[in-house]
Amino acid sequence: MDPGSYDAVLVDANLGAERGADLIETLRSRDEAMAARCLMMTGGTLDMLPAGVATLTKPFQLGQLLDAVRARLRPTAPSGRGEHAGVPADADTQLPAAGPRRAAEPQVDQLLGIIRRLRARERRDLADYLHDGPIQELTAASLELQLRRRSAPAALGTDSVQRQVDAAAGSLRGLVDEPWPLQPAQTSLTEVISARTAWLLAAPAAVDGDLPAARGVDEVARVADIVELMLLTTETAGPPARAHVTVRADPSLLQIDLTRTPERGDQTAGDLAAAQPALDGLAAALGADVHAELSGQQSRVCLTVRR
């Protein structure tokens, strides 16, 4: 089709049984400059898109579409969201491809690695479902509304319907775009724990302590996994609480101290007696020791894991 004769190429991420990314890579193999003229439209996640290619997430406004196409016509234009592209599907979930494994790999690494991969798979399935269903339909509805408003600006009720469609679209994009489980550039223990546990708390967790820099991103991810599991295990049916996390590490032991405090003074800190069997199960699965106590309105759980 003489791709070099096109000023801009709009490609959907999903082309039936084929992938838009494959088409773009084919174009790039024939002419490297083609990547700068391509615009990929997607309602799914951004972690499997070709590097250096601008993206436009659905649903989008007509103005956003026009701006993105105009940007393709300017050779010096930035590549949009291309900086998010080129990340392998399991970049956040792959175990390190290190040298020979020890005969008995720590049980905690095996368990958390399985959980991480399972959740990543579930997230991809959810993103695919949202893309193929609600996001596609909302995209069509939003564009149709915008075209009608251009041809008949006084159409009754279109403004309020447009706002409702945009609000629904924003909620769905929030689900698809939520970073999980750990951005490679994130190495701060406080940042990672706060991001990982936000869905379980009334406010970002307060974190004390840190890990030796030599431990790197893998150890940070492992601690965040354990803190999230501790919070989930002790979660109650009441309103979300606040949490304070203290991490202490030495060459042989990792101790995580989690204190939960109600958001309001008339709330309780949870039922540790009911949570104790689940805490014991978590400790057994991690090969850890656990101690829990209730003091006033605060509940405290201390988990010690052998490193």
Structure notes:
This protein has helices spanning 20-30, 34-37, 62-72, 107-151, 158-177, 189-197, 216-234, 272-286; strands at residues 9-12, 14-15, 18-19, 38-42, 54-57, 206-208, 242-249, 253-261, 288-295, 298-306. With 307 residues, the protein is α/β, with parallel strands linked by helices. The chain has three domains: 3-84, 3-Layer(aba) Sandwich (Rossmann fold), CATH 3.40.50.2300; 127-177; 189-306, Heat Shock Protein 90 (2-Layer Sandwich). It has a five-stranded mixed β-sheet, with helices on one face. The chain has a three-stranded parallel β-sheet with strand order 1-4-5, sandwiched between helices. A two-stranded antiparallel sheet has the order 2-3. The chain is elongated, with a radius of gyration of 24 Å. Mean pLDDT is 78; it is low at 77-105.
